[in-house]
Amino acid sequence: MNLLEQEGLRWKHFAGEAQFDHPISYWGAVLDAREDGHVDLLYRWDPHSACHLHRHTAAISSLVLEGELTVIDIDLETGKETGRVVKPAGTWVHKAPGDVHIEIGGPEGALVLFNLYAPSGSLVEGLAKDGRVLDHQTMEPILKSKARREAT
To answer: Which of 72, 83, 76, 77 has the alpha carbon at shortest distance from 50?
Structure first.
């Protein structure tokens, strides 16, 4: 599969109210998921758009394939920015679970490959600015969807 030719992927659009002065508009596609807790995802951001505030509950590696992605770490107690990193195309990072952040696409947006390892099945928590968990994403629905597609 050529990840830069994305027409055959099933993209899901995520949108919402602006957070931290950025509109929410990004897209995700599952490339693969395995029972051992590994999942490969492709995400793309619209230009100058962010994803929802979240915390990874799994180890994650990312590779920026196109564009540029800014990652802003947020302190949930104060709601303030604690760090900012701009990742141009070619940037690879591995992170342990736990940091709270948003990601913002650059002037041309961004295309990013994510590899998560979630042996417990827990992937990510979507958060409110006050730290409340709004949703909790797990491997279970991804694996069920994969099994349905393979059965047809």
So the answer is: 72
Domain assignment present for 16: yes
Identify the domain containing residue 123 by its residue range.
12-147
- Distance separating alpha carbons of residues 122 and 77, to the nearest angstrom: 23
Question: Tell me: the pLDDT tens digits for 8-40?
Answer: 788 999 998 766 678 899 999 999 999 999 999
CATH number of the domain bearing residue 23: 2.60.120.10
**Is 57 a member of any domain?**
yes
Section 106-111 average pLDDT: 97
Cα 145 from Cα 23, distance rounded (Å) = 29
